[in-house]
Amino acid sequence: MRAFLYAVVAAMCVAPHPASAQNDPAAAKFWKTAQGTCDATTAKAPSELGQRIGQTAIDAFTRFGGHKIDSDGRLFHFGLTEAEHEEDDGGDPNVPLGQLGWWQVMKYWRALFGDDTTTSKLEVRGYRDASTSTQDAQQAELLRTSAAELLRLADSVSDPDLREILRETAMRAAIVDTSWSAAFISYVIKQAGVAPNVFQFANAHRVYIYDAFAVSAAEVKNETREGIYRACPPSTVPRGGDLICQQREAALADDSDEAVRERIRSEIGSDPSARSVRRTHCEVVAHVDKSAHKVYTIGGNVNQAVTARKMNLRRNMRFSTQQKGNCGGPGHWTLPQSDAVTPHPLQHADRCSLNDRKWFVLLQLR
After folding, report:
1. What is the 3-state secondary structure (H, E, C) of the chain?
2. Per-residue model confidence as pLDDT tens digits over 169-215
3. Which residues lie across from 247 on neighbouring strands?
4. Using CA atoms in the order 149, 155, 157, 160, what is the torsion angle rounded to 10 degrees?
5. CA–CA gap between residue 365 and residue 239 (Å, rounded)
6. 102-161, pLDDT tens digit by residue?
7. Is the pLDDT of residue 1 over 50?
8. Residue 133 CB contacts under 8 Å (≥ 6 apart), including other chains
9. pLDDT per residue over 292-308, tens digit each?
10. Is the separation of the CB atoms in 274 and 267 below 8 Å?
């Protein structure tokens, strides 16, 4: 059954692309109308809610103490990560919980699922015999369980200190093995005071991306629909509280951002299980520096941390999907190759800028 489902998903990912706006007059008209609505909103000052969402993201980043990426896409400050505590605790045996990366992430998950059900939602992975094998090339079967199951096993240990260590180990493993970037977005927006009837808190970015496209479709038809975000082309002027999103579908790697938006628009009314743009990531617009033509975004689970990213805006303050940076690239990488070891797959990536991503839509706060 699982193999069948994977085959269905794979088929959806390589399905024929919807016509682009350039070739489809109806699509062109839709996005022209949507862009006009987006531009009319950017002409206004950021709303109180937008400022609150942006500040909430800044506060969460500051508490976490995560990474900082400059406008050339270089990680110039490496901060706390999801499974760590602060690097130098001075030997103090008493550590504030807020200095534990995994504890902060659990806070985001609890805001999404509540105290009682969170651990059952978090997956923990293992690989058969990996803890005892010493062979690099050995193939290992993937094993899966939940944090809740491991916690039940830990609770059977009588020693209270050992029991707590096992519980925390299970939670850290779950944090590492479960993507939490959407949980972070949900946490920020919920903390800013947004109600669930206007934003669908979720553990997958695609949920509120598709919702925002549905809002834009309703607006084009002069219909009303609840939802605080609409979908705008990424070249829209960003404001505090907006979300900038990228797509990470391997099957769509060569598609333009316009084609990806049309794919989503064509799937708005479909069953959620049939939607093909599933691997996505969004970040909160936390601050716009107009004098420097820069935008600061904050996202969760970016290099295993809450990370602040500084990106370039055009002279007219519109967001630029071209975030190449000046970090040299593979042509400046002269480390000799290894003949004895097969390169890790990630070493084949040509993008040297951490900001060079497939940004395809801006979710604008209405």
Report:
1. CHHHHHHHHHHHHCCCCCCCCCCCHHHHHHHHHHHHHHHHHHCCCCCHHHHHHHHHHHHHHHHHCCCEECCCCCEEECCCCCCCECCCCCCCCCCCHHHEHHHHHHHHHHHHHCCCCHHHHCEEEEECCCCCCCCCCCCCCEEEEEHHHHHHHHCCCCCHHHHHHHHHHHHHHHHHHCCCHHHHHHHHHHHCCCCCCCCCCCCCHHHHHHHHHHHHHHHHCCCCCCCCEEEECCCCCCCCCCEEEEECCHHHCCCCHHHHHHHHHHCCCCCHHHCCCCCEEEEEEEEEECCCCEEEEEECCCCCCCEEEEEEECCCCCECCCCCCCCCCHHHCCCCCCCCCCCCHHHHCCCCCCCCCCEEEEEEEC
2. 999 999 999 999 999 999 999 999 999 999 999 999 999 999 999 99
3. 280
4. 140
5. 8
6. 999 999 999 999 988 999 999 999 999 999 999 988 999 999 999 999 999 999 999 999
7. no
8. 140
9. 999 999 999 999 999 99
10. yes
Specify the pLDDT at position 324.
Answer: 82
Contacts 24+ apart (CB under 8 A), 217-224: 217/30, 217/265, 217/268, 219/34, 219/37, 220/30, 220/33, 220/34
CB 102 within 8 A of CB 81: no
Q: How far apart (Å, rounded) are the C-alpha atoms in residues 34 and 237? A: 14
